[in-house]
Design goal:
The complex is a heterodimer.
Chain A lengths: L1 H49 L3 H4 L14 H9 L2 H32 L5 H11 L5 H13 L7 H4 L7 H11 L4 H9 L4 H12 L1 H17 L2 H6 L8 H4 L11 H33 L4
Chain B lengths: L3 H32 L16 H9 L1 H32 L6 H9 L6 H11 L6 H8 L14 H10 L3 H12 L3 H9 L4 H12 L1 H16 L3 H6 L13 H11 L3 H25 L11
Helix pairs in contact in B: 1-14, 3-7, 3-8, 3-11, 3-13, 4-8, 11-14, 13-14
The chains are: A mainly alpha, B mainly alpha.
């Protein structure tokens, strides 16, 4: 009698724990799903507003879905401002800027990772210290330099510095290159390859994941950059998307529908890039925090 | 053994960065320091004015203090909030949930949206007359707000906007959480430790390097807040200078009024602020960070 009673109580306890775990699971899923809705909602609001005719975009109370799905805003985007030009400028800046960043940063990173030299430690310490430097400290003098050289109001000041490497990506790539076993390079040296060939033909292809991560991060950085275009670009035909989309906010009216259509169009390349490189991307970003 | 040839090769490889460092970082920094003691305006030769810019800043410019106060307010609110919410979100996702990848993508996606687009979108959401935020409050009979057009609410609203982007930190925390050895939790279970204790005595200390890194980066980023405020106030810093952050005011001085001397002095103040605050955090919080090995 006693024994079965004890067994029963154990069974009861076990069941209640099982129930507790189940309730916990349900609560976690409820939290995640409701948070997901909160996070997705602004995207939907942007998208649906882009398809709303003007009277609907500014109606109170607002409706989530447009009554009439209207493509007019997407046409107006190109009429109100020279949107195609903004797009072209952004593609030039982000494309060339990314190319320059990836080429120069990987080259420099390989030097820091693998070529021993006197003074390397000092330069590396300097590189790390520039990570803490707010870009605003050098903003005014760098502007003066570009203005003396006559390149203000052109895309040049936005692109050329990219070819001189980015401290942050140099650091990320250096960390990655250091994980590659040295034997790989040693055998290539024995086969008669020089250091540049090893970097270009061996190390770069072996570091695909890291290179993709830096490419994506860099492209997004250039695509989203606001302050540099704001400072350097004065004529509307030189604007990039980041400062171009602000044009829908006129002095008297705000073109909400076209503005959301333009924001959607600005976002599309980023979403495509994100989903194509997602696997490498999320892993690559995640390693950022493990610097120690 | 360091051969001369290898040394030369090193400098050949890192030449682009050293060139950039000298001409776009170190040189301009010194030039900026010089400018901060002049009345440079972009035209003619600047005159040496000594400490005038600095004394004007501290004694005669209420907007300098206003912008500094605004920046501290924003930083003090947004950094801890986004750290805690981003971390909790990662902890929630780290509970062996199904479709973890899908949730991670959903939470991460807002952080790839350009700040300009984010700001314009939230301006629409917080639009006082027909924005969805007020519509929802109105529906539940709650008091509505002017949000970004209100002196009291503009900074808190900017903080709310910034929380949409916590997914960026979340993926980093999540990676840190996944590296915590399971054996630690098993040992704690044997000792009958509560969920709460496991969280504070295992999870948090084991992920403290990641938290610390995010704290420093978040702090440096928040002190430079600019784009959101510029977009939502159409470049004015309004209403009544409530969204005029430090970098925003620096931009106005340096590039709108062409007070390059004054702007450079402000830039150096910002630099010192970042140094002092990060130094303080390294020396206080940094000492509590747990590093597994001396890597």
């Amino acid at each position: 009698m006693e024994l079965t009673g004890e067994q029963k109580s154990i069974q009861k306890k076990y069941k209640s724990i099982e129930k507790e775990i189940k309730v916990k699971r349900i609560l976690i899923y409820l939290a995640l799903i409701s948070l997901s809705i909160v996070f997705i909602f602004p995207f939907l609001w942007m998208l649906f507003t882009a398809f709303k005719p003007e009277n609907e975009a500014m109606a109170f109370p607002p409706r989530l879905l447009p009554r009439v799905w209207d493509l007019e805003n997407f046409g107006e985007v190109f009429q109100i401002v020279p949107f195609a030009t903004f797009y072209k400028n952004s593609i030039i800046v982000a494309g060339l800027g990314t190319l320059g960043t990836v080429l120069s940063s990987s080259l420099v990173a390989y030097g820091f990772a693998r070529i021993k030299a006197t003074g390397r430690g000092v330069w590396f310490a300097l590189l790390m210290s520039t990570l803490m430097l707010p870009p605003q400290v050098t903003m005014i003098p760098v502007y003066i330099i570009w203005s003396r050289l006559g390149f203000v109001d052109s895309l040049v000041p936005l692109i050329v510095p990219a070819f001189l490497g980015n401290s942050y990506y140099i650091f990320l790539l250096r960390q990655f290159f250091r994980t590659i076993p040295k034997e790989v390079e040693e055998s290539a040296y024995l086969d008669g390859a020089n250091t540049f060939q090893i970097y270009w033909k061996l190390i770069l292809p072996m570091s695909r994941a890291a290179i993709i991560t830096v490419t994506l991060l860099s492209f997004m950085g250039f695509w989203n950059d606001f302050m540099n275009p704001l400072i350097y670009l004065h004529s509307v035909e030189n604007y990039t998307l980041a400062i171009g989309v602000m044009q829908f906010q006129g002095a008297l009216t705000v073109y909400w529908g076209p503005m959301m259509a333009a924001s959607t169009l600005m976002l599309i390349p980023l979403v495509i890039i994100f989903f194509t490189g997602q696997k490498h991307f999320v892993e690559g970003i995640a390693t950022q925090g493990n610097k120690g | 053994m360091l051969s001369k040839k290898r040394s030369k090769l090193f400098y050949l490889f890192v030449f682009p960065w050293i060139f950039g460092f000298l001409f776009l970082t170190a040189g301009p920094m010194l030039y900026s320091l010089y400018l901060s003691f002049t009345n440079s305006s972009g035209f003619g030769t600047p005159d040496w004015v000594g400490l005038d810019n600095y004394s004007r800043m501290f004694n005669q410019d209420p907007l300098f203090w206003k912008s500094l106060g605004n920046t501290f307010f924003y930083t003090a609110l947004s950094v801890p909030l986004s750290l805690v919410t981003g971390y909790l979100l990662a902890v929630l996702l780290n509970t062996k949930v199904k479709f973890m990848g899908v949730f991670r993508t959903i939470f991460y996606l807002p952080s790839i949206v350009p700040t300009v687009a984010t700001s314009l979108l939230w301006m629409l959401i917080f639009q006082p007359n027909f924005g969805i935020a007020n519509a929802i409050l109105d529906f539940f009979g709650l008091p509505t707000s002017l949000w970004l057009l209100s002196e009291q609410m503009v900074k808190p609203t900017l903080v709310i906007m910034s929380l949409w982007g916590i997914g960026g930190g979340m993926v980093i925390y999540l990676a840190g959480l996944q590296e915590v050895p399971k054996s630690l939790y098993e040992a704690a279970d044997m000792d009958g430790a509560s969920t709460w204790r496991k969280f504070f005595n295992i999870t948090v200390p084991m992920t403290s390097p990641v938290i610390f890194f995010q704290l420093i980066m978040g702090l440096i980023g928040a002190l430079q807040v600019f784009t959101q405020a510029y977009v939502v106030s159409s470049g004015s810093g309004g209403p009544n200078y409530q969204s005029l952050f430090f970098v925003f005011y620096l931009y106005q001085q340096g590039f709108r009024y062409f007070n390059q001397g004054y702007g450079s002095a402000m830039a150096w103040i910002l630099f010192f602020l970042v140094l002092i605050l990060t130094g303080f955090i390294f020396n206080s919080v940094g000492k509590k960070v747990y590093y597994e090995s001396g890597d």
